[in-house]
Automatic annotation (TrEMBL):
Name the record gives this protein: Protein serin-threonin phosphatase
Lineage: Bacteria, Bacillati, Cyanobacteriota, Cyanophyceae, Nodosilineales
Annotated segments matching region Disordered: 670-708
PANTHER family according to UniProt: PROTEIN PHOSPHATASE 1L, PROTEIN PHOSPHATASE 2C
Key words, A-Z: Membrane, Transmembrane, Transmembrane helix
Database matches in InterPro entries: PP2C (IPR015655), PPM-type-like_dom_sf (IPR036457), PPM-type_phosphatase-like_dom (IPR001932)
């Protein structure tokens, strides 16, 4: 309990690990604040204070940061303890938060291992675990920690969820093929559930023979198996939504769907296609008296309309939709909502901070999966008997710094601009919006909380979940009563903002796979997953505010005017107030896939800008990003002038199976390629409304580095024999 405000403090239990084995006696105190508990668990005795800053992130910590897009599976570096030779610590120790630790019994303990839980788990849960491991294989191998999935000691389970205790570095680079994963799974066959064993034998054989040669094909195969296994499943659902303007605000700019005060329960079969799809949305409007409430309600109305057409498609086809189809439609629905708000901003001639917008988090049940999508800092949490885990990552500056590997998240939170948003709906064209969409199998009881920052600020959810939310899972409190309590708690302990909460309790009935259906699913050739096409674009707004980040500073060329220049400069400094976020990432485009990967050391020359879809008034420039990510591309944007020579550093395939190329600029042409020689425009896609070619941002120079999607790179470059000296 805080001695000043009497607010409950987090019991922050951490997992200790490092490049060398760690053995410390219980009771040892590290850095005068971290108390060693049994078995490598450490308690932060000063949770109200920020950890000591890390001057330079050690190499062994980087994979944790690069895999931060998987918060439910991968723990997050919290603090770094320097070497203490007198304690036989000859290397730094990293303390991990969100680790595989349970406090259910009142005493912290490591979650059970996969090997331990496997023998007694139902067949559907075993299949769910395999699917999660398959999805994690390629990102882990890319980051040099694929061995984690081959090491039983670090594979832990939180009910239906696979969690890593820590990451294990690969002694040698592993092949991206999941063949090794199949070899490891052979050991699981003897203890596999009888309903799953024949399928698992077939699956391991397909992996060993190369019939399934890629991680994406393995994931597709397992998702078909999950669809076949849940045709007879039933799920009981209870939901409740509440919203309140709070004690200090003049109006409520939050909005939710269903309307605040709704509480309902239903039971449905996941194999039925003619039933409503449960949907929950929480939006936090931006713009104050300028229309934040309008934006939040417009987003909800638009998304509900768009998703209705998706459900009608499922009904007309009398079949359940594959995850790629639902994910693609969610992306499109969110972008359509974004453009609806942006167009209204343009019609009302709103500029800069006058523009209204909204954050968004939504939960959609399209059986047999639950989909969570978000933009901004409205959050989703997953609560089980063992813990409360944040499902979404805020689209803010602190998260961006962590993703880039610049520092630990707790350290990034200490920046003055840490909570400044990177993107929100309505601030510009949907070409700059990258929603994050995740999906989870409806298997195992769980409670999902969706909320605006009126509740999540100041760690209120993490501090109170055991008191307010765990009783729901124990059957001692309804979601209706808990939702009301959360509103009261937010107003009492925060009180600075509107607050909205949505609770979704899921209780799937036990369901075992049918062996014959599983074998039939395995007999289908495993295709590569669908490549998500560009969403249909609502006609773009006439004005677009582009935000440019590149290491926190970049010189901005001549702007459209002093006022717009000043606004861009503030955005680029990452000092943007929460009332006016803008998106940083370009939308995916329908580009041809390269026939083969580029190799490290290859030299490429940037071609002239290419017309987009044959349009004479727009052209595509080669744009570079600070990091590859399957989430929102919230890093800096800049362009590389035509004629520049690039050298390929390495290739990386990320979670959504998109290949990215790391490049370094070797040389750029003379002043003719400078941004000053081209007209500037704020219209999306680099198109100039006057028909004059406009560059999409400042150019890079020799020595600059960045990441570019492989498909884009191969479309806008060509091989060269030029051999300039690369910095």
């Amino acid at each position: 309990m805080c001695q000043v405000c009497q607010t409950p403090l987090l019991h922050r239990y951490l997992w200790s690990t490092g490049p060398q084995p760690i053995t410390l006696p219980e009771g040892t105190r590290l850095a005068d604040r971290y108390q060693v508990k049994a078995g490598g668990i450490v308690l932060d005795t000063r949770p109200g204070l920020a950890p000591e800053p890390v001057d330079e992130v050690p190499d062994f910590c980087l994979p944790y940061l690069q895999l931060s897009d998987f918060p439910l599976h991968v723990p997050r570096p919290y603090a770094l303890v320097p070497a203490v030779p007198e304690l036989s610590l000859h290397a730094p120790v990293v303390l991990l938060e969100e680790a595989a630790i349970s406090t259910t019994a009142g005493t912290p303990e490591v979650l059970p291992g996969l090997a331990q839980a496997w023998a007694t788990a139902p067949g559907l849960r075993q299949l769910n675990w395999l699917w999660q491991m398959a999805r994690l294989w390629q990102p882990c191998v890319t980051q040099g920690v694929g061995t984690t999935l081959l090491t039983p000691d670090v594979l832990r389970v939180d009910g239906a969820l696979i969690k890593f205790l820590e990451l294990r570095a690969d002694a040698n680079p592993l092949a991206e093929s999941p063949q090794l994963l199949g070899s490891q799974w052979q050991s699981l066959i003897p203890a596999a559930h009888a309903s799953l064993r024949p399928y698992l034998e077939r699956l391991c054989d397909q992996l060993s023979t190369g019939h399934i040669a890629t991680a994406s094909a393995l994931v597709a195969q397992l998702e078909r198996a999950l669809l076949a296994s849940t045709e007879d499943q039933t799920v009981t659902l209870a939901l409740a939504t509440y919203t309140d303007q709070g004690p200090t605000r003049q109006r409520n700019e939050d909005a939710c769907y269903p309307d605040g005060g709704t509480a309902t329960a239903l039971t449905f079969g996941t194999g039925q296609t003619d039933q409503p799809w449960p949907l929950m949305i929480v939006c936090d409007g931006i713009g104050g008296h300028e229309g934040g409430d309008v934006a939040s309600h417009l987003a909800i109305t638009t998304i509900c309309q768009e998703l209705q057409s998706l459900r009608q498609e499922a009904v007309s086809r009398s079949t359940r939709l594959e995850p790629a189809t639902v994910t693609n439609h969610l992306h499109r629905a969110i972008r359509v909502a974004n453009d609806a708000i942006a167009q209204r901003n343009d019609r009302e001639q709103r500029q800069a901070r006058e523009r209204m917008g909204t954050t968004l988090v939504t939960a959609l049940i399209a059986p047999p999966f639950l989909y969570i999508a978000h933009v901004g800092d409205s959050r989703a949490y997953r609560i089980t008997a063992h813990g409360c885990r944040q499902v979404t990552l805020d689209d803010d500056v602190a998260t961006r710094e962590m993703r880039l590997g610049y520092g630990f998240y707790q350290q990034a939170l200490q920046q003055p601009s840490a909570g400044s948003l990177i993107q929100a709906l309505g601030m510009g064209s949907s070409q700059g919006i990258y929603p994050t969409v995740q999906h989870f199998l409806l298997e195992g009881e769980a409670l999902f909380l969706l909320c605006s920052d009126g509740l999540s600020d100041n760690d209120r959810v993490e501090s109170f979940w055991q008191i307010e939310l765990q009783p729901i899972l124990a059957g001692k409190r309804s979601v209706k009563k808990a939702g009301q309590h959360l509103i009261d708690l937010a107003n009492l302990c925060n009180g600075h903002d509107n607050v909205t909460v949505g609770l979704l309790q899921l209780q799937p009935a036990p369901c075992e796979p049918d062996p014959q259906r599983l074998l039939a699913a395995a007999a289908i050739a495993a295709p590569e997953p669908l490549v998500m096409p560009s969403p249909e674009q609502v006609p773009p707004p006439a004005q677009r505010l582009r935000t440019i980040f590149w290491g926190g500073l970049l010189a901005l060329g001549v702007g459209a005017g002093a006022g717009l220049w000043w606004w861009h400069w503030q955005q680029r400094q990452a000092l943007m107030p929460r009332q006016s976020p803008t998106a940083l990432a370009p939308a995916e485009d329908s580009l041809p896939r390269p026939s083969s990967s580029v190799s490290a050391g290859k030299l490429l020359q940037v071609k002239q800008p290419m017309a987009v879809n044959g349009a004479s008034g727009s052209a595509r420039f080669l744009e570079v990003h600070s990091t590859p990510t399957a989430g929102p591309l919230d890093q800096a944007l800049a362009h590389i002038p035509p004629g520049s020579i690039l050298k390929v550093e390495k290739r990386q395939v990320i979670a959504d199976s998109t290949a990215w190329i790391s490049i370094v600029v070797c040389s750029v042409p003379g002043s003719s390629a400078s941004p000053e020689s081209a007209s500037r425009s704020d219209s999306p896609g680099g198109a100039s409304t006057s028909g004059v070619l406009a560059t999409p941002g400042p150019p890079l120079g020799p020595g600059d580095q960045g990441w570019i999607p492989e498909a884009t790179l191969m479309t806008l470059t060509e091989s060269t024999l030029t051999t300039p000296a690369c910095p």
